C-alpha cells in the first residue's frame, strides 16, 4: 500500500506523457511557418510596384521634338570670280535660301545669292554676280547637336559690270555643309559648293563661250525653322 497522501502528489517531469510535448512543438512549428509565409506575401506587392514605377519616368520625360516643314537661311556669302578673265579677287555678298522639307531626310531648296564687294583690288571693271538656283537637299543628324547636308543645285547666273554679252548663263553644281543646332528652331550653318557657269567672252560677242568656269562658293549664317 502507498503511504497516506501519496495519491495527490504530482508525477515527476520525466514521467509526464510525451505526446503533450510533441503537440507543443508542432504548434510552434506551425506558427513559425505561418509567419514565414505572411512576410513574402506582404513584400511581393511592394516589389511589383518597384519594378513598374521606373518605366513611367522615361515616358514622362521623353518629349517628341517639334517637326517643322520649312527652314530659312540668311548669311554671309563668298564666291570666286573665275568667270571673269584676269580677275584677282573673289567677291563678297549675301546668300539666302529657303527649304521645304518632306520627311526627315529630304527637301527642296531655292537658293539666291548676290556678290558685289571684292576681297581685294585687282579685278578688271566692277564685276558683280547674282544667281538663283534650285534643287534637292538631303540632310541628317550626325552626332548630338551637329547635322549635315548635301545639295544639288541648277539654275542661272548673271554677271554684271563686265563686257560679257549675253551676261546670263545656265549654272549648276553641288556641295554641302554642317549645322549646329542651338534650339529646335535656330541653327548655325557653314556650307560650301562649286557652281559652274559659261558666259560669252569672245571679243566680237558672236554668241558662243570660249570657256566654262567653276566658281567656288562659301556661306556662313543662321537657319530658322518654322
What does this structure look like?
The chain has 226 residues and is an alpha+beta fold. It has 2 domains: 14-61; 70-225, Porin. It has one helix spanning 18-61; strands spanning 70-79, 91-102, 106-118, 128-143, 146-160, 168-181, 186-197, 213-225. The protein has an 8-stranded antiparallel β-barrel. The longest helix has 44 residues, at 18-61. The model is unreliable at 57-62 (pLDDT under 50).
Give the spatial strand order of the biggest sheet. Answer: 1-2-3-4-5-6-7-8
With helices defined by DSSP (H or I, 4 residues minimum), what is the helix count? 1
**Coarse structural class:** alpha+beta
Number of domains: 2
Q: Which of globular, elongated, flat, extended, rod-shaped describes the shape? A: rod-shaped
Biggest β-sheet description: 8 strands, antiparallel, barrel
What is the CATH topology assignment of the largest domain? Porin
Question: What is the rounded Rg?
Answer: 43 Å
Outline the fold blueprint:
Elements: H1 18-61, E1 70-79, E2 91-102, E3 106-118, E4 128-143, E5 146-160, E6 168-181, E7 186-197, E8 213-225
Short recap of the structure:
By secondary structure, the chain is of the alpha+beta class. The chain contains one helix and eight strands; from the N terminus they run αββββββββ. It has two domains: 14-61; 70-225, Porin (Beta Barrel).
Characteristics:
226 residues; alpha+beta; Porin; 2 domains; 8-stranded antiparallel β-barrel; 1 helix; rod-shaped
Amino acid at each position: 500500500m502507498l503511504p497516506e497522501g501519496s495519491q495527490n502528489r504530482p508525477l515527476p517531469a520525466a514521467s509526464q506523457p510525451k505526446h503533450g510535448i510533441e503537440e507543443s512543438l508542432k504548434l510552434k512549428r506551425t506558427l513559425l511557418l505561418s509567419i514565414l509565409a505572411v512576410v513574402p506575401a506582404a513584400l511581393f506587392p511592394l516589389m511589383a510596384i518597384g519594378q513598374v514605377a521606373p518605366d513611367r519616368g522615361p515616358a514622362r520625360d521623353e518629349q517628341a521634338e517639334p517637326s517643322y516643314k520649312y527652314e530659312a537661311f540668311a548669311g554671309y556669302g563668298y564666291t570666286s570670280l573665275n568667270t571673269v578673265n584676269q580677275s584677282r579677287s573673289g567677291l563678297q555678298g549675301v546668300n539666302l535660301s529657303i527649304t521645304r522639307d518632306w520627311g526627315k531626310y529630304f527637301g527642296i531648296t531655292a537658293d539666291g545669292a548676290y556678290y558685289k564687294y571684292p576681297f581685294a583690288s585687282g579685278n578688271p571693271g566692277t564685276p558683280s554676280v547674282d544667281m538663283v538656283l534650285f534643287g534637292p537637299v538631303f540632310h541628317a543628324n550626325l552626332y548630338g547637336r551637329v547635322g549635315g547636308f548635301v545639295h544639288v543645285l541648277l539654275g542661272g547666273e548673271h554677271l554684271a559690270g563686265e563686257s560679257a554679252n549675253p551676261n546670263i548663263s545656265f549654272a549648276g553644281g553641288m556641295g554641302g555643309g554642317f549645322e549646329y543646332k542651338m534650339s529646335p528652331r535656330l541653327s548655325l550653318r557653314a556650307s560650301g559648293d562649286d557652281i559652274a557657269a559659261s558666259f560669252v567672252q569672245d571679243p566680237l560677242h558672236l554668241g558662243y563661250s570660249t570657256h566654262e568656269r567653276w566658281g567656288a562658293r562659301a556661306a556662313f549664317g543662321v537657319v530658322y525653322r518654322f
